[in-house]
Amino acid sequence: MKGFIQTIKNIWSIKELREKLMITFFFLVIYRFGSYVPLPGIDVNEVTRLLAAQADSQQGLLGLLNSFTGGSFNRASILALGIMPYISASIVVQLMGLAVPYLQKLQKDGDSGRKKITQITRWLTIAICLVQAPAYLTLLQTQLLPYSGGFASAYLIDPGTFWFIVPSTIILVTGTVFTMWMGEKITDRGIGNGISILIMVGILADLPRALINAFEIDQTGGIMFLLEIIGLLVVILLCVMLTQAVRKVPVQYVRRAQVGSSSYMRSMTDSVRSYIPLKVNASGVMPIIFAQAIMFLPATLIGFVSDPNSSLSLFFQKVADPFSWQHSVIFAFLIIIFTFFYTAITIPVNQMADDLKRNGGIIPGIKPGKDTADFLDDVLSKITLPGSLFLVVIAVLPAVAHLFGVDQGLAMFYGGTSLLIMVAVILDTIQQINTYLLNHHYDGLMTTGRSKNVA
């Protein structure tokens, strides 16, 4: 504890780091405050009460969106859409970069190209918001209607009028743009990746309430609650291992040097050993996000089935339930597929092989060029399979935890996208803080001053 307190003092003693932390904290406070500001014409207390009566609003993709926005989605806040439209736009631009020559050219143009891609992502974010905002307002009306007996109890004005839809759409779009701006400012002037930190803070906002609920319903004198906390810490440790694990591929760089006097020059070769760190989970949380987007389809298809008691409708209901075994099996299958797909399109083994050849680097025992690309692809395929299986375990753990009696709110923190995002963002932020500490000759937050990779 004494060492930890000294580390905090060291962090506070570095002026630049202190200013960055204060700027980050300032924007996070504004973000959390904005998540409680309701849209004009809505009684936020009544909306919260009505939506709390619906178990479905906390499940599936809607529950994920609400978690990412720190509850803003269910509170009908001006930041209800949060940063998710920007995330969607970034994914679309990234995937289009594989097929659109113009974007491929921008990716190779360095700083100027990145600025243009960022600008394209911003405009695409606004376009997505203009679609999602009216859809969100319509969804809100649909969710409230069966539970309120009409709109009078939740809305101060008629939700179907022009004077509600248009201003609310403009406010929701502005809220997302403002959130995007805060995220970029945190990245530029604060500490860590701003967009990721905003998502993490939104997720963590639900953790205290989940812990309190789990403690209140515990009827074993706190023993079950203690076991749940220990289990959560073990899962977090597994997520850290999954995020940091790499396969080190040895690389040898050969360089030539001239030695001796001008009359007796001779050439000598010197080799420098290095390695290529191939991540076991190179795709991050993207496979889970893609899989969850598809798993939301059964809930949509239920509305198109004429007989709600038919076997097809019951099957869709089971698949849409995130705590059913049917959902877990299909979810796991999709995660494995998307892990291989996303890894294949984001890790350019051919380009890596060309860069090695151009810089005089070789993998011992492997010929440069195509053989190197094939070798890297083979290694990547071998480590992606266990990585995807590990990702499946993390993704379905909430359902397993709920099966063993863990409260639904706390069970959602036992894995899935939320936990992986929190772990990845915290590790990245710690690494940046460590850099500042080590540059000023202080010990880092970790024992060695840097995060270790698990081979």
UniProtKB/TrEMBL annotation:
Membrane topology listed for this record? Multi-pass membrane protein
TM segments?
Answer: 21-39, 78-103, 123-142, 162-183, 190-211, 223-246, 284-305, 325-349, 383-405, 411-430
InterPro entries, per the entry: SecY, SecY/SEC61-alpha, SecY_CS, SecY_dom_sf
> Which family is annotated?
Belongs to the SecY/SEC61-alpha family.
Subunit relationships: Component of the Sec protein translocase complex. Heterotrimer consisting of SecY, SecE and SecG subunits. The heterotrimers can form oligomers, although 1 heterotrimer is thought to be able to translocate proteins. Interacts with the ribosome. Interacts with SecDF, and other proteins may be involved. Interacts with SecA.
What task does this protein carry out? The central subunit of the protein translocation channel SecYEG. Consists of two halves formed by TMs 1-5 and 6-10. These two domains form a lateral gate at the front which open onto the bilayer between TMs 2 and 7, and are clamped together by SecE at the back. The channel is closed by both a pore ring composed of hydrophobic SecY resides and a short helix (helix 2A) on the extracellular side of the membrane which forms a plug. The plug probably moves laterally to allow the channel to open. The ring and the pore may move independently.
**Main location as per UniProt:** membrane
Pfam families tied to this protein: SecY (PF00344)
Organism, scientific name: Moheibacter stercoris
Q: Where does the record say this protein resides?
A: Cell membrane; Membrane
Name of this chain's protein: Protein translocase subunit SecY
User: According to the lineage, what is the superkingdom?
Assistant: Bacteria
Coiled-coil positions:
none
Q: Identify the keywords attached in UniProt to this record, alphabetized.
A: Cell membrane, Membrane, Protein transport, Translocation, Transmembrane, Transmembrane helix, Transport
